[in-house]
Amino acid sequence: MTSLRIFFYGGQMTYRALFYWLTPQIYVPSLLVAPIFQILLFVYIGRSAGLESDQFYVVGNAIQYAAIPCLFAMTQMIGGERYQNTLSAILVSPARRIPLFFGRAVPVVLNGAFVSAFSLTAGAIILGVEIPRSAVPGLAFVIVVAAFSCTGLGLINAALSLRIRENAVLSNVIFGFLLIFTGANVPLDELPNWMSTAAQALPFTHAIEAARELADGASIVSVADLIGAELVIGLMYAFVGYGLLRFMEVQSRTHASLERS
Amino acid sequence: MYHLKMISRSPFEGYGQVIYPLFFATVAFFVFRAGDSAQTLVYASLGAAVMGMWSATSTTAGGAMQRERWHGTLELLVGTPPHFALILLPITLAMSTIGIYSLAATLLYGHFLFGIDLEVVHPLQFAIAILGTVLSFGALGFVFAVTFVRFRAAWALGNLFEYPVWLIGGFLVPLVLLPHWVRPISWVLAPTWGMNAIREAAAGGAPLDDLLLCLGLGALYLALGILLTNRALHSARANAALQLS
Prior knowledge:
Helix content of chain A: over 70%
Number of helices of chain A: 11
Largest interface: A-B, 36 and 37 residues
Number of domains of chain A: 1
Structural class of chain A: mainly alpha
Number of helices of chain B: 12
Largest sheet of chain B: none
Shape of chain A: elongated
Oligomer: heterodimer
Low-confidence stretches of chain A: none
Number of domains of chain B: 1
Radius of gyration of chain A: 19 Å
Shape of chain B: globular
Structural class of chain B: mainly alpha
Order of helices and strands of chain A: HHHHHHHHHHH
Number of strands of chain B: 0
C-alpha cells in the first residue's frame, strides 16, 4: 500500500513540485511551438532535397520531439531535487526505490506523449498531411509506447546526473543522437550500416516506423512486432536505468558526492 | 573579451553550443547526400555552419539580462556610469563570436566526415562576411536581450527563435521554397543577408550588397536596442522592478 502511494501520489506530487516553474510561458514556446518549427524545418529540408514526403517528416519529428520532455524531465528529477536540497533527504528515506523512481516517470511519460500527439496533430494540420481516422487509436498507442521507451533512456540520463554536473548538455547530446539515428529524418537505409544497426537498439526507431505504417493505412496488428520491439527496448532501458540509479546512489554515498556535482 | 572567456568556459553556452548544431548539420548532410547533389551538399555545409552561429546567439541572448539578475549583478551594472547598452552589447557579441567556433567546427566536420570540399573563391571577402554576420547576430541578440527583459521566461523565447531563423533565414532551404508571405520576414532579418554574403563570397559572387544590407540591419537593431534599453531601464526605475520578473 505504501509503495502504491509512493508510486502514484509521490510521483504526481514530485512532478508538480519539481516543475513548478513549467508555466504556460515556458511550456507553450518550448514544448508546443518549438516542435512545430522542427517539423517545418525538416519538411522544407526534405522538399529541398527531394527525399521523402511531408508525412515522413511530420510523423518522425513529432515522435522524436518527445525526447525533450522525457529526457530533460527525468534529469530534472535528480537535478531539481539537488537544487532544492531535498535529494539527500529522499535518498536516506526507507522508501522502496522502484515505486520512488518509477512513480516519477509516469507523469513524464504522459507529458511526453501529449507533446508528441500535439506536434503530430498540429504538424499534420499546418502541412495538410492526411492521416486516416482509423489510424488515430493506433497512433495514440504508439506515441505512448514511444514516450515510455524514451523515459526509460531518461532514467539512465537521470542516473548519470548523480555524477555529471552538466545534465542539460548531456540531454541535448542524447537528443541529437536520437535525431540522427532513429530515422526521424533520414531513412535508415540511407544511414551507414553501423548507424542503422545501432538504431535498432534506440528508443523511437521502431515507434516511428510503426507510426509511419499506421499513417499509411496499415492496421495495428500488422505493426504489433514493431510496437513490441519498442516496448521491449523501453523496458530494457528502464531496467538498466534503475540499476544504474541504484549503483550511482551507492557510489554517491561512498564518495560523498551527492551534493557535489 | 572578458565575456567571451567566461562563456567559453561554460559547458552549455560554450562547447555545448558548438556540439549541438552539429547534430542538425549531420541530419542535413545525410538528407542532402541522399538527394544526390554535390552542389546542394556544399550549400548545406555553409548553411549548417551559420546555423551554429545563430544557435550560439539566440539560445543565450534571450536570457542575458536575466542571468545578470540571477547573479545579483544587474543593479550594479545598471548603476555604473557607462550606458547599459555598452555593457549588454559586448555580452551578446561574445555569444555570437562563440558561433565562429561552431562555424569552423561544422565546416571541418563536413569536410572530414562527409567529404564536402568547400572551395572559398574569395577568402578575404568570406572572412569579412563572417565578421559582418557575427556583428549583426550580436546586434539582433542585443535586441532579444532587451525585448525579453520583462518576460520571466526569456530563455524559453530565445530557444524558440532558433528553428524559425534557421528556416526563414534560408540557411538550409532556398527562400523560393517558402511561402510568399514568409519572404518579407526574411528580408528584415540580418541573418538572411549575412548567409547570402557568406555564400556569395565562397562561390565567387558579389557579396558586398548582401553584406551592406546585413550590416545596415545590424545598425538598425542596435539603434532599436538602445531605445528599448532606455525605455526598459526607465520603466524599471520608475516601478522599482529591476529585480523583479
